[in-house]
Amino acid sequence: MANRVSTQSIERRQQNVAALRVNLYNAGLKNPGCEYAYLGAMRAGADAVAAFEAARECALIQTPADLWDTQVQRRYQSPREYQQMLERQQLEIARLTGLANPYLHVMGRAA
Fold first, then answer.
1. Within 13 A of 43's CA, how many CA atoms are on the CB side?
2. Cβ(52)–Cβ(101) below 8 Å
3. Domain ranges of the chain
4. How many CB atoms neighbour CB 33 within 10 A?
5. To 10 degrees, the CA torsion angle through 85, 21, 36, 44?
6. Cβ contacts of residue 87 below 8 Å, gap of 6+?
7. In the predicted model, what is the mean pLDDT of residues 48-77?
8. Residue 24 and residue 46: Cα distance in Å, rounded?
9. Quick one: pLDDT band at residue 76, thresholds 50, 70, 90?
10. DSSP H helical segments within the chain, as ranges?
């Protein structure tokens, strides 16, 4: 017999994901899918601190494609445009890696 999930249960989960998405966005993780990385880590037994780090890693992986070096981009970009792209990439990586983990304080851990 299949495990039946009620409509109310699904709606509650959707609301929880929406709230988590807002919380992660407010913490600086604005990339789509970060909430699912967070939830996956929690489901696998991670605490909130480690789950936030999983969401951060997801954001780093999903840094907008136009920031990453590809042969096609280099072929059609001037050296100046290419340099600007690399600078934007480094700024985004620095922004993401520099974000404070908001759960360190909540969980009683030092930064």
1. 6
2. yes
3. 9-106
4. 14
5. 120
6. none
7. 78
8. 16
9. confident
10. 7-26, 34-43, 48-61, 71-76, 79-98, 103-106
